[in-house]
């Protein structure tokens, strides 16, 4: 297990790209790929992973509307249960010092390439406020891959 590949929700990236001051930036190991502007790659964080949790590191920051819009999706972790739950560091502060947020639930299944695919990815009730209440709880987010 070496990385998490996720485009979060493509329509959100497209919305940001359309803002005059929309920005996506990555640090702490997370990368954006050249061929797919929406895809974020978070490397594995073995020290924080165990039998129940796949942990990744890296920090994605999305901003726009003169700073009114700020979303930090950093150090994602997937709890292996049914459904699985992907959480991120406190997404609203610069240093992520508040409590982690359970962002989406998903169905994880072993794929043909020795990794996992996450489907049926849905926004949690707790995640609704992060996107300004534009999406409802249960709304579809993008599928993800762990490999
Ligand atoms: C100055 C404040 C804001 C204005 C004027 C504004 C305006 C808009 C408009 C016009 C749309 C529709 C865009 C379209 O359909 O093409 C939209 C969508 C959206 N806005 Fe904002 N917004 C503001 C702040 C925020 C903030 C703070 C967030 C928090 C993350 C946010 C999250 C979203 C989301 C998630 C969508 C839906 C994107 C999609 O998936 O299509 N907005 N906003």
TrEMBL record:
Q: Which Pfam families match?
A: HtaA (PF04213)
- Note the superkingdom of the native organism: Bacteria
Q: InterPro entries under this entry?
A: Htaa
What positions does the domain Htaa occupy? 3-144
Protein name as it appears in the record: Htaa domain-containing protein
Read off the lineage from the record. Answer: Bacteria, Bacillati, Actinomycetota, Actinomycetes, Kitasatosporales
């Amino acid at each position: 297990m070496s990385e998490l590949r996720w485009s979060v929700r493509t329509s959100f990236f497209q919305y940001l790209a359309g803002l005059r001051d929309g920005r996506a930036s990555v640090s702490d190991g997370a990368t954006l790929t050249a061929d797919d502007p929406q895809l974020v790659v978070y490397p594995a964080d073995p020290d924080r992973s165990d039998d129940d949790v796949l942990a990744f590191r890296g920090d994605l920051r999305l901003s726009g509307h003169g700073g009114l819009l700020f979303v930090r999706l950093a150090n994602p972790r997937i709890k292996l249960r049914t459904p699985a739950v992907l959480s991120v560091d406190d997404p609203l502060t610069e240093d992520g010092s508040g409590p982690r947020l359970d962002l989406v639930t998903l169905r994880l299944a072993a794929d043909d390439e020795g990794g996992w695919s996450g489907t049926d990815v849905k926004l949690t009730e707790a995640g609704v406020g992060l996107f300004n209440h534009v999406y409802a709880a249960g709304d579809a987010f993008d599928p993800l891959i762990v490999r």
